[in-house]
Description:
mainly alpha
Amino acid sequence: MTDFELIFVILVCWAIGMQLGYxxxxxxxxxxxxxxxxxxxxxxxRLKLLARMQGEQS
Length: 58
């Protein structure tokens, strides 16, 4: 294997590692954020329903 081929293989492995690291980090971030977003949506929906119910009573 020539030096050029070795450098090419190292660069390809490095790029694959970077992509895998990015994908894993993105996956972990999404798994952490999605429950928080769902909880916030439920809170907003509950507040809208409460405001609508109070508006109908007056």
